[in-house]
């Protein structure tokens, strides 16, 4: 009983709520961490705790050894606690299959230790930010119109797009030099990016896509050079160098001539041999 009272005092004297902010990737799992920081073992048979969102929907519940008796259907099969660590005060849960609906939600953990005098504690508060990584953008060059286009899709939230050009120096293009269109897909809620800049030959152009939540940038670079091959539509592929077929044609012609000479020589020799043998055949 003395140990139980001590644990209750520790829980009650803990800070009101630890503030935390985490980022979850759409479709992946994220940890909502919470630690009661108890210096003594907690009797889980007397423990009850739960996590809830801003709408007071229960993500996860634990009561005297039983899990999720009060869980909201929105979070069915999406949460998992660390039962083997509860006795040491670990009230963290893993939230899986993060969706856009989870964005900027504030989750709170509440704990109660049953005893002679029930003690309640609100130990943790976590704000969840949601993001989706943008794939490396595709950068193409159109030599007919002398422009370069950058595109990527299925990222979140709305990104920042910048271009850098390197010719005699390295500079970032001003917004008025860039034509950018960012669209939101109504079904998935994810963003697509299309951006275009004018170019000149012998330039190196790079498109940068910055995700403000993940604070990461994905980039791609192409070189505008006179040797880039152009197809009938004017689209080009980076790094393609036209093949000079003249030496190949000359080599093939020489080989054919040598073959014809060899065949001709064969028939001449055969005719000569036949002529020499004919008298013997005739008067034999």
From TrEMBL:
Q: Does the keyword Acetylation apply?
A: no
Q: How does it sit in the membrane?
A: Single-pass type I membrane protein
TM region(s), chain numbering: 248-268
Q: What SUPFAM superfamilies does the record point to?
A: Immunoglobulin (SSF48726)
GO biological process annotations for this chain's record? Answer: cell surface receptor signaling pathway; cellular response to lipopolysaccharide; immune response; negative regulation of T cell proliferation; positive regulation of T cell proliferation; T cell costimulation
Q: Enumerate the InterPro entries for this protein.
A: CD80_C2-set (IPR013162), Ig-like_dom (IPR007110), Ig-like_dom_sf (IPR036179), Ig-like_fold (IPR013783), T-cell_Activation_Regulation (IPR051713)
The subcellular localization recorded is: Cell membrane
Which PANTHER family has this protein been placed in? FIBRONECTIN TYPE-III DOMAIN-CONTAINING PROTEIN (PTHR25466:SF9), T-LYMPHOCYTE ACTIVATION ANTIGEN (PTHR25466)
The protein's name is Ig-like domain-containing protein
Species this chain originates from = Oncorhynchus kisutch
**Originating gene:** LOC109905312
């Amino acid at each position: 009983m003395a140990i139980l009272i001590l644990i209750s005092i520790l829980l009650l004297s803990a800070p009101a709520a630890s503030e935390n902010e985490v980022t979850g990737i759409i479709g992946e799992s994220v940890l909502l961490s919470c630690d009661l920081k108890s210096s003594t073992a907690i009797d889980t048979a007397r423990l009850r705790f739960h996590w809830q969102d801003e709408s007071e929907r229960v993500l996860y519940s634990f009561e005297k050894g039983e899990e999720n008796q009060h869980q909201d259907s929105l979070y069915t099969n999406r949460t998992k606690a660390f039962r083997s660590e509860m006795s040491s005060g670990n009230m963290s849960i893993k939230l899986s299959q993060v969706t856009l609906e989870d964005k900027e939600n504030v989750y709170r953990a509440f704990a109660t230790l049953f005893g002679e005098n029930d003690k309640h504690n609100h130990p943790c508060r976590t704000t969840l930010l949601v993001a989706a990584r943008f794939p490396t953008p595709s950068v193409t060059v159109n030599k007919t119109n002398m422009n370069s286009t950058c595109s990527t899709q299925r990222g979140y939230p709305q990104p920042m797009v910048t271009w850098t050009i390197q010719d005699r120096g390295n500079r970032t293009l001003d917004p008025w030099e860039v034509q950018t269109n960012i669209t939101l897909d109504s079904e998935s809620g994810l963003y697509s990016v299309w951006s275009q800049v004018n170019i000149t030959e012998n330039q190196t152009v790079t498109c940068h896509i910055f995700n403000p939540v993940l604070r990461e940038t994905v980039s791609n670079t192409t070189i505008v050079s006179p040797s880039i091959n152009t197809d009938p539509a004017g689209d080009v592929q980076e790094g393609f160098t036209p093949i000079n077929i003249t030496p190949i044609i000359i080599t093939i012609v020489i080989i054919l001539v040598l073959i014809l000479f060899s065949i001709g020589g064969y028939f001449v020799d055969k005719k000569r041999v036949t002529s020499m043998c004919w008298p013997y055949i005739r008067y034999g």
